[in-house]
Amino acid sequence: MKIIPILPLLALAAGTIQIGSASLISIGTTPTSGAGLGTVNTILTVTSPGSTSTETGCVGASSVGAQVIGSSACFGGAIGGDEQTGASQTQLRTIGQSGAIDASSFLIVLNTVEPGGDSITLDQLSVRFYSPTGTVLYTASTSGSINFPATFTGIGNAGFGFQLDSAQAAAATAASVFASSSNLIGLSASLSNATGGQETFFVGSVASGGGGGGAGGPTPEPGTLMLLGGALFTLGLSRRFKKA
Fold first, then answer.
1. For a pLDDT cut of 70, what percent of the chain falls above it?
2. Which of 124, 146, 206, 234 is 20 to 30 A distant from 27 in Cα terms?
3. Would the pTM of this model clear 0.85, i.e. be above it?
4. C-beta separation of 62 from 47 below 8 A
5. Got the DSSP string for 64-101?
6. How crowded is residue 210: how many other Cβ atoms within 10 Å of its Cβ?
7. Residue boundaries of the structural domains of the chain
8. How many angstroms separate the CA atoms of 218 and 206, rounded?
């Protein structure tokens, strides 16, 4: 599934990012209209149990390439417990299923379903790539927490995209992650400030010429346009005063 994310420069409109080094970076709002559960390559689905406000989950591969969900064999057993395991909710995916042809086009999308579009915080997100027989090829993670002050109502309407940064994309390529469409993809995540659910992660690829704004790209939402317009207006005033 190929997706064209909105301008990466607008990432701040989608979330407040804790600055630090990261190998898996947020690229902001990623429209996925019409992509409901079962029609995208969902890899992990989590829901906060009972009255709690945290969600954790993990899906990975065993040493022989078998699927492991939320157990001690999944990413070292550091995370897990709130996975939803119904049909197409949590499962290992392959590079071929993601549609990514190389490391720079690989995309993870978080689709949140919070009441009234409430905020949510992604505390940790890691992706791990395996050979078909379970050998770990490469792992990349976010750095620090990312708060999304507003989310989207309805499963599959829109989400928040994540990609490998340029250095890690090169390292993943060197590790032969994208050399075979049969290589496996695992994911672990933890979220807080959650008051609903379900939160789903799915894998896809950035369309050719990704970055938005080009022919065939989606139209940014009104709020995003207002933010961009305000930034451009401020920049224009700054330049005018410098000339004065």
1. 65
2. 234
3. no
4. no
5. TS-EEESSTTSGGGSS-S-B--STTTS--EEHHHHT-S
6. 22
7. 2-216
8. 13
